[in-house]
């Protein structure tokens, strides 16, 4: 038996998972319109490759990755491009983002699918194909997978597979493991090969016995030495840092990545997508999503990316008192701006919300420093202090108290007897700090531009004066302008020196 | 709720305060049994003054009155103060102490959650400094012969200073054990003499029962997760260790650990006063440090200071050190463990 490490804090939550695991995964019917956002991953949005009126095939690349942290976006089905325009996307802000709108033709005609011979191909070529295939972390963070498959100069010893799925209500990974374990195991082997990992640990929360059994069978059938480790169901056991600590006892140093300590962590859904992409040449155009909460038929469906949430939840038959939809789980999810937004790669779960399901909390009371938040914080932060600093706009102090190590798991807010929306304060403080950082950079840039301009003007004036001096000085010895020219040169020189002195002063004041 | 988390496992501030009040009930019962119903009158006066002061201050500060008044925090302060005062003290004493605690120690510092000092202990110290004589009117416990005051007699005495016919104040009240020991030691008697004779008045009295009742309430708070084990364990253990060291050095001058744990405000301090979250540290190590230091101060003030008990002063002195303690006892944040302590390199 592997010795497990108990991370600090965390919460025992009612999981509400059984309600959505009664039925097998089912595909959704084709909607009349698919809205595919071009920014579905962390990093730069993909560049649109199609224009309105164009016909596309299922799996066709419609968004080209741009920049390093980016990956491809594909047509989820065959049809016609109706528009490439900003549409509301699943984001708490409710803002719009560039989307490709596709009208399906119902024929489901695929592009030519080319499996990747990953055993014989150059690893960087394989990673490039994975990037093109649009693979991003399906646990919800949507970090481009090809980057995580590139250990660079580091040696990845242990590959950790995240099947913990610790948020209440969400069961997409659980159902995926139950139904498609062999594909996941194939994906694990591909990732293990690409990373050169020696050891594979598959962490699954112990409240998913069927998934554990299915994965165990698939690992044995595949003849692999992967170790399946049931982990205690303590939220957030499935947080990457928490799972890595639980299984290995190692902490990812603040500001570093698992690679830096010889680890890599992939969600089971991402590994399934990896197997489909590598072995079958299928880009990421659909995902398993849980529909649950205030619905009559909670279940998991395989939804095409771009399916409007309204179509998705219709399969679960929401009850009349549903007042909003939450994407993600009740601890870290957010309220969708409306049912028109599309399913994206990050959509692991949609919870129909009602006042009865998530009753509104009473108005916040003052913090009494009871310390419950610190007891449950998996990052071992001092949430009550961070709250005080954020509230008093003391952002420097908040950073000093490791604000950016907060994983926003929501444990502190959940246990606060004063019902203070603590996580909101941390998000606010983080965004303020980012905004100030951006402002500072912009001001720096503006100052450097200004200095450069002054220097250039002075140099030009000086050069003009010198040219003039050479011209006149060469022809007539006793030019009446000569003294004036020399004076101009002097003036230019002194002007050149002055701005520099001014900027130094500015720099000191700042 | 518009943002995550959408679930709450928390009770409420009111629930926390209510648990503290409930946890005090066994001690109040023992109090009544030992010293008569006077303590109930003190509790009633303190509660009324606390709520009135709280309401007035909230109004003056422009805060909503109803939600804050119903959070029960003012009552907790009132009860803790009332239980620390002699049960035959005049009514105005508890009223002044309570009003000062709520108005100055709590609201002038910014109200609930912002006070640097424990309000009940501020009230107590103001009284013992200003009215030391009135603070000694502890009724003789039932164990001793003497007239017992009923409801009416107690009320008459507390409100009007009227003694029942034929009774003398000296017969009604008795010095507390800590007081007796302190005075007698000053008169060059040895502890063996003081504790061995019934003339030691109140030694032994019913304090053991009171201490046990507070401990029972404290265990309830622990079980309810209102408090953690750190403060009570560190406080009682440190007090026992310090007392034990002195006792071992000179048993005739320094009472043993059991004496110091049983008498005075040691147990109520350990479970109810030092555990005040607002004015105490929040980190586990901080709590241990805070409580152990307070225990040492309690002992020093009791034995070498000018006052019979030292809990209140020890608490206030340590309250001042809380920001410093908190700052230096933060847990190592995930991924920022100091080198050499295991975990990631």
TrEMBL record, chain A:
Q: What is its main location?
A: membrane
Q: Which cofactor does it need?
A: [4Fe-4S] cluster
**Gene3D superfamilies reported in the protein's UniProt record:** 3.30.70.20, NADH-ubiquinone oxidoreductase 51kDa subunit
Q: Which domain of life is it from?
A: Bacteria
Checking PROSITE patterns in the record gives: 4FE4S_FER_1 (PS00198), 4FE4S_FER_2 (PS51379)
For whether the record's keyword set contains Translocase, the answer is yes
User: Residue limits of the 4Fe-4S ferredoxin-type domain?
Assistant: 358-387, 397-426
Key words of the record: 4Fe-4S, Cell inner membrane, Cell membrane, Electron transport, Iron, Iron-sulfur, Membrane, Metal-binding, Repeat, Translocase, Transport
Query: How does this polypeptide assemble, per the annotation?
Result: The complex is composed of six subunits: RnfA, RnfB, RnfC, RnfD, RnfE and RnfG.
Q: What family is this?
A: Belongs to the 4Fe4S bacterial-type ferredoxin family. RnfC subfamily.
Protein's UniProt name: Ion-translocating oxidoreductase complex subunit C
- Upper taxonomic lineage: Bacteria, Pseudomonadati, Pseudomonadota, Hydrogenophilia, Hydrogenophilia incertae sedis
Gene (UniProt): rsxC
């Amino acid at each position: 038996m592997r010795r497990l490490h108990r991370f600090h804090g965390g919460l025992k939550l009612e999981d509400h998972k059984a309600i959505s695991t009664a039925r097998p995964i089912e595909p959704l019917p084709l909607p009349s319109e698919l809205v595919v956002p071009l920014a579905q991953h962390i990093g730069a949005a993909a560049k649109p490759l199609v224009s309105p009126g164009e016909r596309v095939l299922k799996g066709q690349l419609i968004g080209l990755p741009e920049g390093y942290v980016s990956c491809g976006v594909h047509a989820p089905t065959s049809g016609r491009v109706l528009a490439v325009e900003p549409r509301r996307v699943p984001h708490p802000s409710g803002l719009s983002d560039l989307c490709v709108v596709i009208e399906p033709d119902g024929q489901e005609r695929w592009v030519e699918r080319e499996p990747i011979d990953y055993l014989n191909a150059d690893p960087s070529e394989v990673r490039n194909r994975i990037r093109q295939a649009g693979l991003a972390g399906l646990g919800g963070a949507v970090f481009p997978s090809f980057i995580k498959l590139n250990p660079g100069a580091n040696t990845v010893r242990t590959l950790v597979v995240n099947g913990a799925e610790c948020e209440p209500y969400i069961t997409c990974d659980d159902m995926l493991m139950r139904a498609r374990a062999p594909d996941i195991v194939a994906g694990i082997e591909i990732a293990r090969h690409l990373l050169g990992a020696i050891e594979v640990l598959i962490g699954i929360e112990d409240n998913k016995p069927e998934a554990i059994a299915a994965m165990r069978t698939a690992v044995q059938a595949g003849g692999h030495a992967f170790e399946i480790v049931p982990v205690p169901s303590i939220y957030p056991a499935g947080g990457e840092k928490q799972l890595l600590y639980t299984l290995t006892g190692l902490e990812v140093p603040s500001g570093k990545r698992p690679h830096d300590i010889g680890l890599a962590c992939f969600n089971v859904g991402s590994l399934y997508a990896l197997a489909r992409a590598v072995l079958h040449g299928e880009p990421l155009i659909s995902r398993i999503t849980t529909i649950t909460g205030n619905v009559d038929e909670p279940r998991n469906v395989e939804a095409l990316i771009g399916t409007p949430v309204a179509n998705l939840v219709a399969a679960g038959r929401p009850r009349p008192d549903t007042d909003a939809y939450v994407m993600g789980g009740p601890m870290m999810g957010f309220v969708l701006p409306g049912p028109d937004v599309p399913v994206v790669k990050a959509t692991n779960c949609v919870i129909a919300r009602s006042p009865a399901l998530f009753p509104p909390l009473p108005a916040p009371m003052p913090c009494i420093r009871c310390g419950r938040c610190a007891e449950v914080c998996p990052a071992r932060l001092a949430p009550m202090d961070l709250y005080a600093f954020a509230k008093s706009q003391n952002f420097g102090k908040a950073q000093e108290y490791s604000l950016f190590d907060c994983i926003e798991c929501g444990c502190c807010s959940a246990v606060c007897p004063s019902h203070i929306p603590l996580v909101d304060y941390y998000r606010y403080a983080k965004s303020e700090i980012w905004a100030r950082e951006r402002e500072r950079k912009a001001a720096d840039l503006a100052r450097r531009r200004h200095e450069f301009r002054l220097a250039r003007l002075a140099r030009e004036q000086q050069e003009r004066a010198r040219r003039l001096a050479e011209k006149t000085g060469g022809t007539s010895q006793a030019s009446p302008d000569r003294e004036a020219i020399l004076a101009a040169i002097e003036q230019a020189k002194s002007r050149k020196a002055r701005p520099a002195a001014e900027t130094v002063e500015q720099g000191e004041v700042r | 709720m518009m943002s995550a988390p959408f679930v709450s496992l928390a009770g409420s501030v009111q629930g926390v305060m209510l648990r503290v009040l409930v946890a005090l009930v066994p001690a109040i019962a023992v109090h009544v049994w030992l010293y008569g119903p006077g303590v109930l009158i003190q509790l009633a006066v303190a509660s009324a003054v606390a709520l009135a002061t709280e309401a007035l201050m909230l109004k003056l500060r422009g805060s909503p009155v109803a939600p804050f008044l119903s959070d029960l925090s003012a009552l907790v302060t009132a009860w803790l103060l009332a239980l620390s005062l002699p049960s035959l003290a005049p009514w105005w004493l508890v009223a002044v102490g309570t009003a000062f605690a709520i108005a100055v120690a709590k609201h002038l510092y910014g109200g609930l959650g912002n006070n640097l000092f424990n309000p009940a202990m501020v009230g107590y110290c103001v009284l013992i400094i200003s009215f030391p004589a009135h603070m000694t009117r502890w009724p003789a416990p039932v164990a001793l012969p003497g007239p017992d005051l009923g409801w009416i007699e107690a009320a008459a005495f507390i409100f009007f200073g009227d003694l029942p016919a034929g009774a003398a104040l000296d017969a009604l009240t008795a010095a507390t054990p800590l007081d007796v020991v302190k005075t007698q030691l000053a008169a060059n008697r040895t502890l063996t003499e003081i504790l061995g004779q019934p003339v030691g008045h109140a030694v032994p009295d019913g304090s053991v029962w009171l201490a046990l009742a507070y401990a029972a309430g404290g265990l309830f708070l622990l079980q309810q997760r209102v408090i953690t084990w750190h403060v009570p364990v560190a406080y009682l253990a440190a007090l026992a260790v310090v007392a034990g060291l002195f006792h071992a050095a000179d048993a005739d001058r320094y009472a043993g650990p059991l004496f110091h744990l049983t008498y005075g405000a040691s147990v109520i301090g350990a479970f109810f006063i030092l555990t005040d979250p607002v004015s105490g540290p929040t980190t586990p190590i901080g709590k241990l440090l805070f409580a152990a230091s307070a225990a040492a101060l309690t002992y020093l003030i009791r034995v070498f200071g000018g006052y019979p008990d030292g809990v209140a002063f020890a608490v206030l002195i340590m309250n001042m050190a809380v920001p410093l303690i908190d700052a230096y006892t933060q847990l190592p944040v995930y991924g920022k463990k100091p080198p050499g302590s295991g975990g990631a390199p």
